[in-house]
# Entry
Amino acid sequence: MNNFTISIIGMGYVGLCTAVGFASKGNKIIAVDNDPEKVNSINKALSPFHEPHLNDSLQKAIKDGYLRCIPDLTEAILNTEITFITVGTPTKADGSINLQQIQNSAIEIGKALNKKDEYHLVVVKSTVVPGTTENFVKPLLEKHSNKHCGSDFGLCMNPEFLMEGSALYDTLHPDRIIIGENNQKSGDTLESLYTEFYSKEIPPILRTNLSTAELIKYANNAFLATKISYINTIANICEKIAETDIQTVAKAIGLDKRINPQFLRAGLGYGGSCFPKDLKALIAFSKQNNYNPTLLQSVQKVNQQQINHTIDLIETELGELSNKKIAILGLSFKPDTDDMREARSIPIINQLLKEGADVTAYDPVAISNAKSIFGDKIKYASSAIECLKNTDCCIIVTEWNELKKLTPEDYKQHMKTPILIDGRRIYDPKQFNQKITYKGIGLGRKDL
Ligand code: UGA
# Structure
């Protein structure tokens, strides 16, 4: 097998999982990051973030000599054939995308290409708004390399669809591969890498121009976010109808093949480093292009309103929140990650604190990241049971498996008043309703 040598710039989720994924099938990978701590940690086979199964695969890749991490981008370009850019594209104050890291990478890659005689393929994997690769990355690469894109080096845009929590699995088993290409040779080179990599398990490959590939990523995330806000809207309607349950409605509509069951879990809404950021960027991009994307703005609004709605549910039970003791179970933006970026726990806890509540929180892995956000404004428990002790109300914010194992008795025994707001609908209402005060998002009240 003629495996390509690959460099990957930026060791966030996408970068590291892509690096480990390629290394697992025998590609020689040079990972690059400008944070010396990250570089050290990766070379010691310790993932800088919590991601199931990643440490084992990282360990194997390092031990077998297929992956090393360095700070020097030039060395990485000179010693590889293909470079993936996987740096962050955060949000600016006005909601638009911040391309600073993309700019730095493109300039440095360009300078390194200037020192190289052989053909090299540059692939943008970071999420960037349509036109960025063509009108921003390409001119920077050409200027700093003094070479022509197409003949001297190739350029592709290849969005990533992995989810945190199943990042490695998703990298190894994608539904499809999108190759946005500057020209045929660029696309052919990337397609041959993937054909070799996935072999018989190759998913469908779609080849497009650069801007279409960029838009596909936003369209994908915006659609999934729309599904979530849609089901949360129906959930809120359910709460107005006696004896209805959003989970039954979601199950039924999910069986329609045109809808499908995924991303129909009603609850506190979406968080994380992607949906909120990508929605903002797509809205800002549309407005810059004189289009007001009303649907996407509503998706955002519904997501924000789920927080107020949850606070309303608590207040209905407790009245004034001042000095009330509230337990928060789950802090990360979703289970199986310690990622707190845009986690729903943040606006909920901030609102509770604003109203004078006394908050204690528990999360299996995200406490240390949460401490850098809330500091000593809240208390931290070392177990779910400890978190419940003497509290007036508990909110399930993240659907960790270990929380699913708690019983109504656990809540009854340890809380001062067993009032449970199930923000992720992890419990069986029938079982819980009999023993404690149980309120779930999208659960029609009995007494309506
Ligand atoms: C998301 C996309 O799913 C990936 O395809 C994409 O590659 C990634 O963003 C990205 O752009 O990099 P991720 O942010 O890891 O992945 O997490 P998701 O599993 O999509 O969940 C996002 C949020 O939606 C979480 O807060 C989750 O709790 C919430 N969610 C998800 C719901 O509230 N209901 C659902 O039914 C599904």
Q: What stands out?
A: The longest helix spans residues 210-238. Residues 127, 160-164, 221, 224, 228, 263-265, 267, 269-272, 274-275, 333-334 surround uridine-5'-diphosphate-glucuronic acid (CB under 6 Å). The chain is about 45% helix and 15% strand. The longest strand covers residues 5-9.
